[in-house]
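Hi Y.,

Following your request, here is the sequence exactly as I used it, all 361 residues.
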Amino acid sequence: MTTLVFGPSPVEVAHGEPREEPDGTLVCAAVRDVTHDVRSFVLRPAQLTAYGFLPGQHLTLTVDVGGQVLSRCYTIASSPCRPDELTITVKRVPGGPVSNWLHDHLRPGDAVVVDGPLGSFSTAHHPAERYLFLSAGSGITPLMSMLRTIHAAGEPVDVVFVHHARTPADIIFRDELRVIEADHPGVRVVVVCEGDAEHEQWTGPRGRVALPMLLGVAPDLVDREVFTCGPAPYMEAVRGLLTQAGADPDRYHEESFDLAPPAAPAAPARSSSGATYMVELRRTGRTVECDEHTTLLAAAAQSGLSLPSSCQEGMCGTCKTTLLSGRVAMEHAGGIRPREIAQDKILLCCSTPCDDLVLDA
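Below is the corresponding structure, written out as tokens. Let me know if you'd prefer a different format.
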């Protein structure tokens, strides 16, 4: 996480971000079935051009679902070695309005509104000679982007990739994982399934993530840079196992797109002075009170105002707003870029006031 205290003035933060970014509109070029409930959507700019992103970064897609504008984060599963296009791989989720809309409605030629690329969950920020990739379900997508990049660039690194799936029918990128493992001498892929599929009995490792299994495939795991993505219980289990093994927490990196409860955005922690500030929402025409421990998004919600938001963890960028005056403390998870901070942008979900504020909201 990155904590900044700033007001409307240039702020420079170095994260090694790509020079060109595809904010705005992308056009669907192809739709490909991956499993029975997972599809990949190939996206390109309206005018053919190249743009940069880092392996493991994500986009925030905004779509109109039945008259309701919704935003969700999706990892770029493709490699930046193909700069003319990017691919998001989406699992159909029961009750998931955006994932289901993409599956049912997005077709080649259709346009989608995007913000990004965003995020710092990337091997580009943590180069190493040995990696341990741990994923479950659709959490494989950012790690697949990293693996595809390592493979395409011929990077001489050692990667142990352990992926957990419910059944063999649910293994995302199954064939491609085999191809990369066979082609790259430093890559070893281990797929673990909980049970059998309707038409296939699983003959590989079974069960849930466990320390004996991890040590069996990566005895040197404490010396590896670890990247993890999957459901929250899975990542919680991984954290506990790595702690038990004595792994260095500074070499552990995780990504999660689980939505936080809407009524309780997390506030950055800092010393208390008991101060309360006035926050003017210029376009809304309202002024609300906000204390130093309450996020601006939460203060607006407590006053009956519903502002655009999604992840509420400083990751997706949906609540991005211009700070017209005053200073805030902002702790984000990659949902805003240095150039945007220099343009006085903030994320309402992870910013708390240090002064009276005026927002372009």
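The CA atoms of residues 32 and 176 lie 14 Å apart.

Thanks again,
Q.
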